[in-house]
Q: What sequence folds into this?
């Protein structure tokens, strides 16, 4: 099982990244969003987190092995959940992923069928199917920063300060126990973790959330008029 590639990015096409590792060059399928993030790194060493997949094999068709590459384990995990929706295969999912995983997750969580239906290959029927199956499964991706970095934690601007599980537990508590909307819960958590403090438990994070909420909003200083 190949789960990660590190090598020189030799070629970047619309759908694939060609990584050279010693005498071997390996092609990995990528999304449009990943391609845009890689386009300034041609000729440099890059790391892709990969899924090994077999294409074909139904009805006697030839089976073809393929690698699918992502810039973070978070993106890879989201893709696996995304392709669990009936009718959303590897190619369709990669074409649809033109936005960051956080943006896509927030659209799903907010039931933004109209927005999802504008993604390449995703019409209204697929958008409704995606929302119905995934709305309660993407909370961890909808929270925090777009790119946690290699080895980082979702929702933390500094790796290791707060784990994805702590953020997800706090989010669910805000929604289920305290009655906040999904959008308000995301906003409150974003504000709390923006302070770059470590949170070992969901209770610690919830305490910080309400401390942040209770702080008075800073008022702009009135400008002094000059005496003529």
A:
């Amino acid at each position: 099982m190949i789960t990660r590639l590190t090598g020189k990015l030799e070629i970047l096409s619309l759908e694939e990244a060609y990584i050279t590792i010693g005498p071997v060059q390996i092609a990995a399928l990528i999304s449009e969003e990943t391609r845009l993030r890689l386009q300034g790194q041609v000729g440099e060493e890059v790391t892709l987190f990969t899924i090994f997949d077999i294409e074909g094999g139904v009805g006697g068709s030839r089976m073809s092995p393929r690698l699918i590459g992502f810039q973070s384990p978070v993106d890879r995990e989201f893709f696996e959940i995304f392709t669990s929706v009936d009718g959303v295969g590897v190619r369709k999912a990669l074409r649809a992923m033109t936005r960051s995983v956080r943006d896509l997750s927030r659209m799903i969580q907010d039931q933004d069928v109209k927005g999802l239906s504008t993604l390449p290959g995703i019409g209204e029927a697929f958008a409704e199917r995606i929302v119905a199956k995934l709305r309660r499964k993407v909370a961890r991706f909808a929270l925090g920063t777009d790119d946690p970095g290699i080895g980082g934690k979702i929702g933390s601007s500094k790796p290791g300060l707060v784990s994805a599980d702590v953020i997800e537990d706090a989010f669910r508590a805000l929604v289920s126990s305290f009655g906040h909307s999904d959008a308000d819960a995301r906003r409150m958590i974003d504000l709390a973790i923006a302070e770059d403090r470590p949170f070992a438990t969901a209770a610690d994070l919830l305490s910080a959330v309400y401390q942040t909420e209770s702080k008075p909003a800073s008022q702009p200083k009135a400008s002094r008029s000059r005496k003529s």
